[in-house]
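dude i think i finally got it to work??
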Amino acid sequence: MKNSLLAIIILFSTFGFSQENSTETPKIAVKVPKGETIILKGVSIQFVEVVEDSRCPEGVDCIWAGRAIVKAKVTANGKTEEKLLTFGEVKSGEEKNTNLYSSENFAINGLSLKPYPTAESVGNINSYVLLICEEKN
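look at this
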């Protein structure tokens, strides 16, 4: 009888603790190769150019972690505007921006610029890809 009561208490306490954990919905990234355009939720996004890529290469010791700045054209509701996205550290007085588009229902944000430079690839990256995702507001 005592063992059955103990088993029931353990069972119910397990249910109580397991419901406290909440999981975050994973972000699904969309790849936009440099020079190409994609349409996401009716919003056209063109990856125009890499303005700056001063990210510290993997395997190298740097004083500053660096940053990447990307220019993109966003067309929504018949209006086109250029956006500069900043990935990595920002200099003092600058603002970090990864937002491409925002509406009442969703936002489209930049996640990162790939590939990340290595000691061997510095200055030789020809095929950049911008990773973006849609998030609910």
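The radius of gyration is 22 Å.
im so relieved honestly
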